[in-house]
Design a protein that fits this description.
three-stranded mixed β-sheet; 3 helices; 19% strand; elongated; 104 residues; alpha+beta; 5 strands
C-alpha cells in the first residue's frame, strides 16, 4: 500500500523517519495519543528537573505521567478511551450539552 500511494503525503504519518499508513482510525487515534503524551512529558521535563538533578524536588517519569489528564466528550468513540488506556493516560469524560459542546 505504501508503494501504491508513493508520494501522496496526506496519507503518511512521518515519525522517527519511518513512513507508515495507519490501518484504521482507532490506530491513528492511539498513535496520536501516544505522541501527545510524549510531547507533554517533554514539556513537563523542561519545567521539572529529574530526581538525579534535584533529589528533593525532582520528578520521575511516572510522576510526570501522573500529572497528565486527557479530556473527551462522553459521546466520543470508544477507541479514544481504549487509546488512553493503552497509552497509560488518565481519561476524564465531560458531559455533552444539547448543542454538542461540553461542560464540566
Amino acid at each position: 500500500m505504501n508503494e501504491f500511494l508513493s508520494n501522496n503525503e496526506p496519507f503518511f504519518l512521518n515519525t522517527m523517519k519511518l513512513d507508515s499508513i495507519q490501518c484504521s482510525a482507532s490506530e491513528a487515534i492511539f498513535y496520536s495519543m501516544v505522541w501527545a503524551r510524549e510531547d507533554a512529558v517533554r514539556q513537563l521535563r523542561a519545567k521539572f528537573p529529574t530526581k538525579q538533578e534535584d533529589p528533593e524536588n525532582g520528578k520521575t517519569r511516572a510522576e510526570l505521567l501522573n500529572m497528565l489528564v486527557a479530556y473527551c466528550n462522553n459521546e466520543c468513540h470508544c477507541c479514544v478511551e481504549r487509546a488512553a488506556m493503552m497509552g497509560c493516560v488518565r481519561m476524564r469524560k465531560l458531559k455533552a450539552d444539547k448543542n454538542g459542546g461540553t461542560y464540566m
